[in-house]
Structure prediction request, 71 residues.
Amino acid sequence: MDAQSLQLLVTREMPYGKYKGRLLADLPGNYLNWFAREGFPSGELGRLLALMHEVDHNGLKPLLERLRKRP
Prediction:
């Protein structure tokens, strides 16, 4: 987990699916859990979704609020 990846969670949008256009940091836990069960996509998106799953699963979403407020 690095600062750049955390910043991407609050700026990158989901590119497809039911939550297309929603920030990765705003994806619901059950959607992230589904990916964890079924498999994350390959590449950077999969890595970010796996990170967001860990953040959500461990109750760390409030830590992302400070990053949202960055200019």
